[in-house]
Amino acid sequence: MKILVTGGAGYIGSHTIIDILENTDHEVVSIDNFSNSDPNTFDRVEAITGKRVKNYNIDLTSYNSLKTEFFLKEGHIDGVIHFAALKAVGESVAKPVMYYQNNLNGLINLLKCAQKFDVDSFIFSSSCTVYGNAEHQPVTELTPTQIPESPYGYTKLVGEKILSDFAKTKKDFQALSLRYFNPVGAHISGLNGELPKGRPNNLVPVVTQFASGWINDLVVHGTDYETRDGTSIRDYIHVSDIAHAHVLALEFLNKSESETNYDVFNLGSGNGVTVLEVLHAFEKVSGRKLDYLLGPRREGDVEMIFADNSKATKGLKWDLQYGIEDAMASAWKWQQFLNKSKSGDKVRL
Ligand code: NAD
Ligand code: WQD
């Protein structure tokens, strides 16, 4: 199959490309405008897989560019994995129009092309943010969604709706929304990982950059939650496990295993882990002591969310390979690679 990966230079997209190249015969092409990534991601993918991926530097919000510079040139595309989106929750509150414009227009333009050029399979990157502050944990795919507080989260909820409505109208079309929990870690080689532009917000890059002296403080946001140690609980899932789920999802769609032509899966580890447990896992695998501070809750954070992943483990035949310590060890290996490499200079504050 010929697969278009949008956002192929990004964190999850690049790991998914690696998995596709290593485990399938599919041909992969990428579209990424590098708004949150760097072209040298493809050098790293090549170093790991020995294969060069062709990327089109196209902004998905331009329907004309997408049609003429990509679809008319590349010929038939069997499947699309649509990662490309802006993803910073806080930034989306400050710049809502930019988020709605980028994330929704990008999706809509892709679906217009899927219609016009007859793409059969479509996978959409959604998020556990659609569950909001769910009453019962773990959350299943039947847990009611809530209107997310942030414009970013809302683009995921609306994105799912747009895709499911579209799926009802196109014959022989198979689509999935995959709801990721907290993707963390790096490729096992330590040669590819998360490289956020500017100061990271997410816990794991904050930890590894703090341990390397790139940033000066590591604050635990909230110690008065009703959890086993007072800090909030999330479901951290290794990015390579997330990546592999996409390869299985392509197979699932290709075999038309779903009873309907649109479905939703949770991609989480099934384990709820506290912030302090993440920090201790890092200290254990790195041998470094983290001199962290205890601070107040972060606005907008939920106390606890973790996945019931049984639908994905059974339906997609998804076997998770990695735990939280593997994730922290690989993230640390990647950070050490960045410390030595020039890529690090671009993000060092
Ligand atoms: P990322 O920022 O690393 O990758 C996204 C890529 O898309 C970037 O390389 C960016 O340059 C590209 N892009 C963005 N807008 C584009 C546009 N208009 N045209 C072309 N390229 C564009 O993000 P990620 O962590 O790899 O996330 C991938 C997807 O998964 C996103 O849709 C995100 O919302 C979703 N998601 C991520 C997380 C997470 O914590 N990382 C959790 C849940 C869902
Ligand atoms: C994890 C925990 C923080 C940084 C976000 C998005 C969500 C999804 C995944 C895309 C929280 C705590 C963090 C720090 C800390 N993304 N923390 N100190 O907020 O669960 O989810 O990414 O869809 O939509 O909201 O992830 O990594 O920011 O935080 O104590 O310096 O770590 O309070 O409890 P979050 P995170």
Report on the structure:
α1 (11-23) packs parallel to α2, α3 runs parallel beside α5 and α7 (203-211) packs across α11 (324-340). The N and C termini lie far apart (42 Å). The strands form four sheets. This protein has a seven-stranded parallel sheet with strand order 3-2-1-4-5-6-11, with helices on both faces. Strands 7-10 form a two-stranded parallel sheet. By secondary structure, the chain is an alpha/beta fold. It contains twelve helices and 13 strands. It has helices spanning 11-23, 41-49, 63-74, 89-94, 96-116, 151-169, 203-211, 239-254, 275-286, 310-315, 324-340, 343-347; strands at 2-6, 27-31, 54-56, 79-82, 121-127, 174-180, 182-184, 219-221, 233-234, 236-238, 262-267, 273-274, 293-295. 42% of the residues lie in helices and 15% in strands. It has a single domain (2-343), classed as Rossmann fold (3-Layer(aba) Sandwich). Bound molecules: nicotinamide-adenine-dinucleotide and UDP-4-deoxy-4-formamido-beta-L-arabinopyranose.
What is the compact description of this entry?
With 349 residues, this protein is α/β, with parallel strands linked by helices. It is built from twelve helices and 13 strands. It has helices spanning 11-23, 41-49, 63-74, 89-94, 96-116, 151-169, 203-211, 239-254, 275-286, 310-315, 324-340, 343-347; strands at residues 2-6, 27-31, 54-56, 79-82, 121-127, 174-180, 182-184, 219-221, 233-234, 236-238, 262-267, 273-274, 293-295.
